[in-house]
Amino acid sequence: MAGISVIGVTKFFQDKPTLTKITLEVQNGEFMALLGPSGSGKTTLLKIIAGLEVPSAGRVYINGVDVTAVPTERRQAIIVFQDHSLFPHMNVYENISFGLRARGESRQTVAEKVSAMLDIIQLPDKAQSYPQELSGGEKQRVALARACVLEPSVLLLDEPFSNLDINLRHSMREFVSELHNRLKFTCILVTHDKEEAFLMSNRVAVLLDNSLEQVATPEYLYRSPQSLQVATFLGERNLFPGVVQGGYFRSVLGSIPCDLPDTASAVATCRFDQVLLSRTVGELEGRIIQKAFAGRSTTYKIELAQGTVVTAVCGQQQFAVGDVVRVGVNSGDLLIYPA
Amino acid sequence: MKGGKLTRLVMQCALLVFAGPLLTLLVQAVSLRWPFPSLLPTVISVRHAVNLLWDNPRLTEAVASSLGIAFMTTIFTLLLAFPAAKALGVYNFPGKEAVKLLALLPIMVPTATVTMGLHTGMIRMGLAGTFVGVAIVHTVFTLPYALRILMHVFELVGDRHEQQAAMLGASWGRVFYRITLPLVIPGALSAATMSFIISFSQYITTFMIGGGRIITLPLYLVPHVQGGEWHVASVYSLVFVVATLGALTLMQYLVRRYYRETYFLSP
Questions:
Q1: Which residues form the domain of A113?
Q2: Residue A63 phi/psi, 5° resolution?
Q3: CA-CA 20 to 30 A from B246: which of A232, A278, A339, B183?
Q4: Which part of chain B has CATH 1.10.3720.10?
Q5: Is B5 helix (H, G, I), strand (E, B) or coil?
């Protein structure tokens, strides 16, 4: 059974569409990342699932039950926001116990569950601290604990790590993944960070211009973006404009067989790491114009003889700026889209 | 060091501004005779001042009326201002700015003009000359101030904590009592204080709507000021100051106690 089903959800704000006919299914216990740029409607979709926004059209199901008209407090879908939204007038214990007390749990049960959750988030000695006395990471852990202690059927994370520094972000990602493995809730993580989406999720849904473009596993999405928009958004790809004539895509790369109908404008793409650089072997000639060393890999910008600039990421080979190199791309690595 | 000196100077000036008039009132209240051009009173009598206060049922009645009407007005104001301020501070809707301006109208138009119009309405409804009628009309003048204060508080607080509480399963009532109220109570206290003081010092509105049947402290005090009875007026003015301060201190104490008992905060 699907943990979350969103069917044909559309949302208008002052006659402008924020979401257009979104249909998405998240399996029970699945961790899905909702990836998209700012303003693509990611947070609005989460709010619609949690009941904080009413869709202009479409239905929302949680565990097979239509919750479109069910009030927020009865949905068991909790959003953990980027800004934590901890209650500033309550200490950590009171924050975490808030939902349990609202549910009418006995004092002893509340104490046991909160204590266990404080151990899980590794903050047992902070029970009496107030939110303003906590660090950014501690606040985020308390916000997660406050939601997880209720064992919700659905947990929605709205860019929860974007305010944290890089080290803390890594440890929080691991922490949330561990928490998910342990508690097995259905989860949607909203993010604009591709690495975060790929690292944490079972599947990634790409939301662009208020529409759902593709839902796939991280590996599949990385290798085979289904449209030029998705490929461009995922980035780290070279774009080679050209035309399709008689079953061949013609560009600076030469003629490559393709199954697109004849079109005046098409684009072939390949990832930076799929560009082959060599001093001797390769169809094209170019000159290194920029080099960026990043430890495990080096990124080169190469200007081809035709004027096109190509980016390549190499692990082993080392070139210097100004070197003349041969550039090659396996035709099997190229994805061709109508422009 | 320089900053410290400046702060001290500002504090001393502030003390002078507040203490100066109060001191003059105190001296005036005990001076039976203070003819021009004497720098100090020529006859001082505390007993006379005490006599004015002691066994004066009209004064007691005026203080009780003032306090009663001011409390009633404060309650009416908060009941109306709370939902209105939340709507204006948190939500967006067409015509919001026009509503904000409309809410300020009663204090932009002269008091007498508004009160005359309201008087006719109060007579029709049978509320002229009653405590409730006077409190309702006072509310018209206190509401814009309370609304402004609470609206800014709601703009700052927003509704994200309320949304979070609802997602955690809290009912509407629980969200209001456990989240909304504690977060806005400092602002609500400011709004209540402002409403109380404005209502307590109303003269023209009480005079017109009360029709002489409702005598509050300002109505009892003003004839003595107009008649040049400075000594009597000063004694009653001190009663005015003490009554206002007492009521406000009580309000503040109750709110602090609420916070301490509910959230175990240090006082």
A1: 2-223
A2: 50, 40
A3: B183
A4: 53-263
A5: helix
| Nearest CA-CA distance, residue A231 and chain B, Å | 35
Superfamily of domain B53-263: MetI-like (1.10.3720.10)
Q: Does A74 touch chain B (CB under 8 A)?
A: yes
Q: Using DSSP, state whether B8 is helix, strand or coil.
A: helix
Asked if A77 reaches chain B (Cβ–Cβ under 8 Å), the answer is yes
In a domain, A231, yes or no: no
Tell me the chain B residues in contact with residue A94 when contact means C-beta distances shorter than 8 Å. Answer: 263
Helix (H, G, I), strand (E, B) or coil at B56: coil
- Kindly determine whether residue A50 and residue B263, on different chains, have CB atoms separated by under 8 Å: no
Per-residue pLDDT of A113-124, as tens digits, reads 999 999 888 899
Query: What b-and-e string marks burial along A88-121, b requiring 16 or more CB atoms within 10 Å of the CB?
Result: ebbbbbbbbbbbbbbeebeeeebeebbeebbebb
Closest residue in chain B to residue A51, using alpha carbons only: B167
Instruction: Please list every residue in chain B whose beta carbon sits closer than 8 Å to the beta carbon of residue A90.
Output: 263
Q: What are phi and psi of A28, to 5 degrees?
A: -60, 125
Is A328 found in the same domain as A287? yes
- Rounded Cα distance between B131 and A281, Å, is 99
Q: Which residues of B touch A81 (CB under 8 A)?
A: 160, 164
CA-closest candidate to residue A78, choices A146, A10, A23: A146
Size of interface A-B (CB pairs under 8 A): 60
pLDDT surpassing 50 at residue B266: no
Total domains present in chain A: 2
Domain identity same for A21 and A149: yes
Query: What stretches in chain A show pLDDT beneath 70?
Result: none
Check whether residue A186 and residue A154 sit in a common domain: yes
User: What does the block give as tokens for B105?
Assistant: 């109208």
In a shared domain, residues A186 and A62:
yes
Task: Give the distance from residue A125's alpha carbon to the nearest chain B alpha carbon, in angstroms.
Answer: 18
What does the alpha-carbon distance between residue B75 and residue A220 come to, in Å, rounded to a whole number? 63
Identify whether A230 is part of a domain: no
Residue contact B183–A90, C-beta within 8 A: no
The CA distance from B231 to B237, in Å, is 10
Residue A261 near residue A272 (C-beta atoms within 8 A):
no
Amino acid at A68: T
pLDDT (tens digit, 9 = 90+) per residue, A223-272? 899 999 999 898 889 999 999 998 899 988 888 888 888 887 899 999 99
User: Would you tell me which residues 82-141 of chain A have a C-beta closer than 8 angstroms to some C-beta of chain B?
Assistant: 83, 85, 87-90, 94, 98-99, 102-103
Where is the domain boundary, A223, A252, A278? A223
Spatial separation of the C-alpha atoms in residues B121 and B104, rounded to whole Å: 20
The answer to whether the predicted template modeling score (pTM) of the entire model surpasses 0.90 is no
Q: Which of A87, A113, A185 to mutate to test the interface with B (most CBs of B within 10 A)?
A: A87
- What pLDDT score was predicted for residue A217? 96
List chain A residues with CB under 8 Å of B265.
89
Minimum Cα–Cα distance from B185: chain A residue: A89
User: How many residues appear in chain B?
Assistant: 267
